[in-house]
Design brief:
It is a single chain. The protein has 210 residues and is of the alpha+beta class. Strands 1, 2, 3, 4, 5, 6, 7 and 8 form an eight-stranded mixed β-sheet that branches. Strand 3 and strand 4 form a beta hairpin. Bound molecules: coenzyme A. Coenzyme A binds next to strand 5, helix 6 and helix 7.
C-alpha cells in the first residue's frame, strides 16, 4: 500500500517535469535497450530467441544520438528512434556483435530477419526507428511530447516529412499517429508473417511538414 504522504508512481510521473533531449545519455544505455526490446520483442524474437543475447546486441548497438529521449530525474521514460542521413537508432548493430552473441549459424538467421524489418529513409524525410514509452508512464502525453520534439528536429534539419510503419495488431498506436496528423498511404499485407511475428499487415503513415 502507498502511504498518503508519498505520491503514487503514476502521480510521480504525471507531476514531474519530463525532460526531452536529443539522444539518450550513456547512463541509461541498458534501460534503452531493455525498453526497445520489450516493445519490439515480437518482431525481434523470431530472429534471435535468446532474450539475454538480444538485449546485449541492442545495448551494444543502439546509437544514442539517433533518438529523442524522455527522462525523469535521470530515469528513462521513453525513446523515439529515427533514421536519417546520419544513421539510425539501431544502426550500430553489427554482424560482428550478432555473431559474438549467438554464434555464426544463428547469426545468419538473425541478420536475415532483421533485414526484413529494415527500411531506408528518402533524402527529404525522417524515418521513425521505433517509439516506446515505459509501460507505467503511458497515456500521459509522453509519446505526444516525443513526437513534438521529433518534428522540431526534422524541421530544423530540413526534412519535409516524417514516415513510419505501424502493424495491424497495434490500433492504439495508429490512433495516436492519426491524432498527430499522420495519414496512411499504403498497406502491405504480409499473411506469411502472422505465424512468425504475430502481425499480418503493415501500414505506412506519413506526416508532411509545412
Ligand atoms: C504508442 C506509445 C509510444 C504511446 O506513448 P504514450 O506516452 O502512451 O502516448 P500519449 O500519452 O501521448 O498518447 C496516448 C495515446 O497512445 C495510444 N496508446 C497506444 N498504446 C497505449 C498504451 N499501452 N497505453 C496508453 N496509451 C496507448 C492511446 O490510443 C492514446 O491515444 P488517445 O489519447 O487518443 O486515447 C506507447 O503506448 C508505447 O510505448 N507502446 C508500446 C510500443 C509501441 O507500440 N510502439 C509503437 C510501435 S509502431
Amino acid at each position: 500500500m502507498i502511504a498518503e504522504s508519498q505520491p503514487a508512481p503514476w502521480e510521480h510521473v504525471a507531476m514531474a517535469a519530463v525532460e526531452y533531449r536529443l539522444g539518450f545519455p550513456e547512463s541509461v544505455r541498458e534501460e534503452a535497450a531493455a525498453l526497445y526490446d520489450e516493445a519490439f520483442a515480437a518482431k525481434l524474437r523470431p530472429g534471435m530467441r535468446d532474450d539475454v543475447a538480444r538485449r546485449q546486441v541492442l545495448a551494444e548497438g543502439l546509437d544514442p544520438s539517433r533518438c529523442i529521449a524522455a527522462l525523469d530525474d535521470g530515469a528513462l521514460l521513453g525513446i523515439a528512434g529515427f533514421h536519417d542521413a546520419g544513421g539510425s537508432l539501431t544502426g550500430g548493430i553489427t554482424v560482428r556483435s550478432v555473431v559474438r552473441a549467438v554464434g555464426v549459424l544463428r547469426a545468419v538467421k538473425a541478420i536475415a530477419v532483421f533485414a526484413l524489418l529494415e527500411r531506408k529513409p528518402k533524402p527529404d524525410e525522417l524515418l521513425m526507428d521505433g517509439i516506446v514509452v515505459r509501460a507505467d508512464a503511458r497515456g500521459r502525453g509522453i509519446g505526444t511530447g516525443l513526437f513534438a520534439e521529433l518534428e522540431a528536429y526534422a524541421r530544423a534539419h530540413g526534412r519535409r516529412r516524417i514516415r513510419l510503419d505501424v502493424v495491424d495488431t497495434n490500433p492504439g498506436a495508429r490512433r495516436l499517429y492519426e491524432r498527430l496528423g499522420f495519414v496512411a498511404t499504403e498497406t502491405e499485407r504480409t499473411p506469411y508473417l502472422e505465424r512468425f511475428m504475430g502481425f499480418s499487415a503493415s501500414t505506412t503513415m506519413l506526416k508532411v511538414l509545412d
